[in-house]
Amino acid sequence: MKFSELYGRDLICTQDWKKNELDLVLDLAFKMKRERFSPKYTNLLNYKTFLMFFYNPSVRTRQSFEVAATELGGHAQFLEPKSMRLKTQKTAGETIEDAAQVMSRYGHGLGIRILEDKVGFYGEGDDLLRDYAKWSSIPVISMAHDKYHPCQGLADVMGWTEWLCKGTEPDWNALKGKKLLVTWGHGALARSWCSVQEAMLIGSQYGMDVTVASPEGFDLDPQVLKWTEENCNNKDTHFETTNHPTKGYEGAHVVYSRHWMSPQAYLEGEFLKQKEIEKALKYPDWICDSKKMALTDNAIFTHPMPIDRGHEVTDEVASGSRSCIYDVAENRLHVQKAIMALTMTGL
Ligand code: CP
């Protein structure tokens, strides 16, 4: 497969892409990491702009995309939808059909973030991204929406492989047979399902055994659970869910502890944030700590950040010698450079 085959592709979820396509992104990201300012890469986005709009706040995504565009010789433009006069269910304004087609005349790629309180029901953000993708003639990249966070998923796999793979050249099959525990953490932030669902999907595509642990009442999207199970079946690996706070740790190689909202978080178009927080804080046992990590197979701790320390994970684990959080965060830069280069230029 050639790099040029990804030119023009949307990236809304890694499950929409084949593993050999994701491997191409990781190959290029790894090369770009090793030779960060090589002239091979610094002009790839000359005169090209990545248009970004963020319905929700961000640190890593915004900064890493802006830095990525700069390092490739292009530009990333930041826009808040509140300044865009877009049509919503409640207000008159510009349609996605019009906005997407005009933006396609200006930029070479379009990034969108929409989650948590900016959607009225689970899946509304995904519908919006897919609508933009339908009307845009430039690639649409999710910068985290209510269902998925593909850039995070790619950075996760890149980081886990670097940590768990012994060779100098990463082997994108090295995660095969490693156990990923995705565990719910109690917390005072009511978080969308995007990062954990993406980790389950991409982890299973890369041949990991996947265990999802949460208290009763915090089930994730049944479609994502089904896809994860299918990915595991296709790779002859193991998938399971549990409502036990410690069982899943046994034999794990990667522990991903993060809070996520319950399926009851939206009611009649409203995000019930306070209720979700009150509900989550009733489960103080659901925290990743050293005692639980001792049950694993010397697992690494991973998290997409920002971390709710003291709730999702203890300081000791988050800042410990097996924490890969900063490497994964750094990899957001390298994978996004690769994604932009591949989808916006074809190289
Ligand atoms: N992981 C992640 O997407 O971080 P931000 O919310 O800061 O962008």
Bound molecules: phosphoric acid mono(formamide)ester
Enter the CATH topology name of the largest domain: Rossmann fold
Helix content: 25-40%
Beta-sheet strand percentage?
5-15%
Calculate Rg over CA atoms: 19 Å
- CATH-derived architecture of the largest domain: 3-Layer(aba) Sandwich
Question: How far apart lie the N and C ends?
Answer: 13 Å
Tally of discrete structural domains? 2
Give the class from helix and strand content and strand pairing.
alpha/beta
Largest sheet: 5 strands, parallel
Tally of DSSP β-strands: 11
Uncertain runs are none
Mean residue pLDDT: 96
CATH superfamily of the largest domain: Aspartate/ornithine carbamoyltransferase
Instruction: Characterize the overall form.
Output: globular
CATH class of the largest domain: Alpha Beta
Placed side by side, the strands forming the largest sheet appear as: 7-6-5-8-11
Give, in order, the helices and strands. HEHEHEHEHEHEHEEEEHHEHH
Helical segment count? 11
How would you sum up this structure, described in words?
This protein has 347 residues and is an alpha/beta fold. It folds into two domains: 3-147 and 332-344, Aspartate/ornithine carbamoyltransferase (Rossmann fold), CATH 3.40.50; 150-328, Rossmann fold (3-Layer(aba) Sandwich). 37% of the residues lie in helices and 14% in strands. The protein contains eleven helices and eleven strands. It has helices at residues 19-34, 60-71, 96-106, 124-135, 150-164, 194-205, 222-235, 273-280, 290-293, 315-318, 325-344, and strands at 49-54, 75-79, 109-114, 140-145, 179-184, 209-213, 239-242, 254-258, 266-267, 270-271, 300-302. The strands form three sheets. It has a five-stranded parallel sheet with strand order 7-6-5-8-11. A four-stranded parallel sheet has the order 2-1-3-4, sandwiched between helices. A two-stranded antiparallel sheet has the order 9-10. Helix 1 packs across helix 11, helix 3 crosses helix 4 and helix 5 packs across helix 11. The protein is globular, with a radius of gyration of 19 Å. It starts with 18 loop residues before the first helix and ends with a helix. The mean pLDDT is 96. Phosphoric acid mono(formamide)ester is lined by residues 58-61, 144, 152, 304-306.
